[in-house]
Write a structure and sequence with these properties.
InterPro entries: Crypto/Photolyase_FAD-like_sf, Crypto/Photolyase_N_sf, Cryptochr/Photolyase_FAD-bd, Cryptochrome/DNA_photolyase_1, DNA_photolyase_N, Rossmann-like_a/b/a_fold. This protein is mostly helical and 473 residues long. Helices cover 49% and strands 5% of the residues. Bound molecules: flavin-adenine dinucleotide. The site of flavin-adenine dinucleotide has 27 residues, from helix 11, helix 13, helix 16 and helix 18.
Length: 473
């Protein structure tokens, strides 16, 4: 008897084996399963660092699958075109995938699902990228949440399902379809000089993610609430990098936090709350998709934001003359990540001190972050700019100097990332100059700039602009 026709498991941001509902469902059909990744229209437009980091993740999952006797098939092209040809080549009867919620993915997936079904192919989407499907959490009146705290109060009472085990054996087809070669895709091509520097800071793949979670729960969770705002300390989990590519499931992170809380580690409650901010961002991106591109409170579209000026360029290059801001921008350029407190400070400085459109910051983060996430990034930017749901009011301007005094009093963070002016600059600070494009012509020997807008002047400028705008509304 010939082998049964295969199922295609279309992998996207779910590059793991454990707790993978779509994978489990595909294997449960009893048919052979072909894991497929498509360098499609959504991947094509990713920022430089996100694309580079995705490449590392693909390399890792490909090895994991190989160890199980499976091959990760790589193809490039429009998602539907590729799926249609792999179905034709293999005789696959179904395509399974894990759901995503950003607009580009939703548009693609809706089109693919309808087209496949029309062609007589089973098209099944599964949960796994978030804890709670965005449409399963609603207010008492049946609407969606616009404010975080009531959202948290609702979801904390919801049941989170148990994690599914990783497959022990892979149902391989008799013949594997042909695959592109990952190295030929050159997913690091847009990284300028930075790829080698940034690579050192990545902890890629499922095992790294699980180790990270275990270490965090064992060592740092108790101090999380107290120390999580100090960028000079390593007091947070660092899991955003892994969650964004689905190298670990949010459910696995949730259960580890919940177990720690049950065992009396009270810091774990705060950790769960932060994980739920990620959920909230997905709730919002699903229900109010314009959050990605337009001011969530639309009235803010008329705010006289500045466009892309030399001020924004100084901000991007870590040359504002405000050490906390510059340290953070350099940290992001070299490591692909930035501490959450620092994200708030640089976001506030750009949108308030420099009166610059939040979308300019959002785009730069999308290009530089290896933990770039469409939902968390959009929500974070709208939060700092004051135009989002449950946002910090515009008139609440973070002062980057007093913030540094409070959260980096010993200046360990600033010293880690600023080289200029120090007789013995740190290795990390110097690494910035190796990572940035040559065209920026930066070196540690060029004097550190004076503030382009000082911490105190900026507040006044922002408040005047805000009052003038407010009067017109
Ligand atoms: P931990 O403190 O260990 O928290 C655990 C997990 O909870 C995180 O991994 C993350 O998944 C989630 N989480 C924590 N804080 C937030 C938050 N404020 N919003 C949403 N989820 C949260 N996060 C991203 O993952 N990708 C982004 O592109 C991104 N862009 C941001 C842009 C701005 C302007 C701001 C203010 C925040 C942004 N964040 C983003 C949220 C946050 O800064 C990061 O999730 C956090 O710094 C990740 O570090 P960690 O994994 O050590 O977090």
């Amino acid at each position: 008897m010939g082998q049964r026709p295969p199922i295609i498991l279309w992998l996207r941001r779910d590059l793991r084996l454990a707790d993978h509902p779509a994978m489990v469902a595909a294997i449960a059909t009893g048919q052979p399963v072909i894991p497929l990744f498509i360098h499609d229209e959504v991947v094509e437009v990713l920022g430089a660092a996100a694309k580079f980091r995705l490449g590392l993740s693909l390399e890792n999952i490909s090895t994991q699958l190989r160890d199980l006797g499976a091959a990760l098939i790589l193809r490039r092209g429009r998602a539907h075109d590729v799926l249609r040809s792999v179905v034709a080549e293999t005789g696959a009867t179904g395509v399974f995938w894990s759901r995503l919620y950003d607009t580009a993915s939703k548009v693609r997936d809706t089109e693919v699902k309808a087209a496949l079904r029309k062609e007589g192919v089973k098209a099944d989407s599964h949960p796994g990228h978030v804890l709670f499907e965005p449409w399963t959490v609603s207010t008492k009146t049946g609407g969606f949440y616009k404010v975080y705290t009531p959202f948290w109060n609702t979801v904390k009472q919801k049941e989170v399902g148990v994690c599914l085990p990783a497959p022990k054996r892979w149902p391989a087809p008799a013949n594997w379809p042909k695959s592109a070669t990952l190295s030929n895709w050159k997913m690091d091509a847009e990284m300028n000089r930075g790829a080698a520097a940034v690579a050192k800071h990545q902890r890629v793949g499922e095992r790294a993610a699980q180790d990270r979670l275990r270490n965090f729960i064992e060592i740092a969770v108790d101090g999380y609430k107290k120390y999580r705002d100090f960028p000079g300390l390593r007091s947070t989990s660092g899991l955003s990098e892994n969650l964004t590519y689905g190298e670990i499931s949010p459910r696995m992170v949730w259960h580890a936090g919940a177990r720690a809380l049950n065992e009396g580690h009270l810091g774990a409650e705060h950790f769960l709350k932060e994980l739920v901010w990620r959920e909230f961002s997905y709730h919002l991106i699903h229900h109010t998709p314009w959050i990605e591109t337009e001011c969530w409170r639309r009235v803010w579209e008329s705010f006289p934001w500045r466009g892309d000026t030399e001020l924004a360029e100084a901000w991007r290059r870590g040359r504002t003359g405000i050490p906390f801001v510059d340290a953070a921008m350099r940290e992001m350029y070299v490591t692909g990540t930035m501490h959450n407190r620092a994200r708030m400070i640089v976001g506030s400085y750009l949108t308030k001190h420099l009166l610059t459109d939040w979308r300019i910051g959002q785009a730069w983060f999308a290009d530089c972050l290896t933990d770039w996430d469409p939902a968390a990034n959009a929500m974070g930017w709208q939060w700092v700019a004051g135009c989002g749901p449950d946002a910090t009011p515009y008139f609440r301007v973070f002062n980057p100097v007093t913030q540094a005094d409070k959260f980096d009093a010993d200046q360990s963070y600033q010293r880690r990332w600023i080289a200029e002016g120090y007789t013995k600059p740190s290795r990390t600070a110097l690494s910035y100059f190796k990572a940035v494009p040559r065209s920026w012509a930066l070196s540690e020997d060029i004097a550190y700039p004076d503030p382009i807008v000082s911490a105190s002047d900026g507040r006044g400028v922002a408040l005047v602009a805000y009052s003038a705008w407010k009067e017109g509304h």
